[in-house]
Design goal:
4 strands; Nuclear Transport Factor 2, Chain: A
C-alpha cells in the first residue's frame, strides 16, 4: 500500500519521511528533520523521537507519556510557517510550525518555534518555544 507521507509533501511515506525515520537516509536540513519528527508523532514512533532529540535535552523519562499522548490524538496537518538557517551549510536552525490535531472532540494545535542543531554531524531537535 502506498501511503502518502503525513508531513504534507504529497510523496509516498516510504520515500519521504519513512526513509529518514527508518535510518535509510539522514535529514539534510532542520526543516526535513522537523517534518520527519511530525511524521513520527503521527506514528507514535517514540524510538525515532528520542533518537532525533539532542542528547542534552532528550526527555527519556517522558517516553511512555509521549507515546500514549501521540497515540491518543488524531493528527491532521503540519503547517510550516517559517525557517531560519538550518540548511546543509549551517550548524543551527529554527523552524516555526503549527501541528493541528483532534483531541477530546475538538481541534487543537501546537504552535512552536523549534531550535535544531547538529550533533555528531546529524540534525537533532534541541528545544522549542510555544506560542
Amino acid at each position: 500500500m502506498n501511503e502518502i507521507c503525513p508531513c504534507g509533501s504529497k510523496q509516498n511515506y516510504t520515500d519521504c519521511c519513512g526513509a529518514i525515520i527508518n535510518g535509510k537516509r539522514e535529514a539534510g536540513s532542520a526543516l526535513v528533520l522537523m517534518k520527519s519528527r511530525y511524521t513520527a508523532y503521527t506514528k507514535a514512533d517514540v524510538d525515532y523521537l528520542m533518537k532525533s532529540h539532542h542528547s542534552s535535552t532528550r526527555p527519556i523519562k517522558e517516553r511512555k507519556s509521549i507515546k500514549r499522548w501521540a497515540e491518543s490524538v488524531k493528527w491532521m496537518q503540519l503547517i510550516i510557517l517559517n525557517t531560519w538557517d538550518g540548511t546543509s551549510s549551517d550548524d543551527e536552525g529554527y523552524v516555526e510550525f503549527k501541528a493541528l490535531f483532534f483531541e477530546n472532540g475538538k481541534i487543537n494545535q501546537i504552535h512552536e518555534k523549534s531550535f535544531f542543531k547538529r550533533e555528531k554531524q546529524k540534525w537533532v531537535y534541541v528545544s522549542g518555544a510555544h506560542f
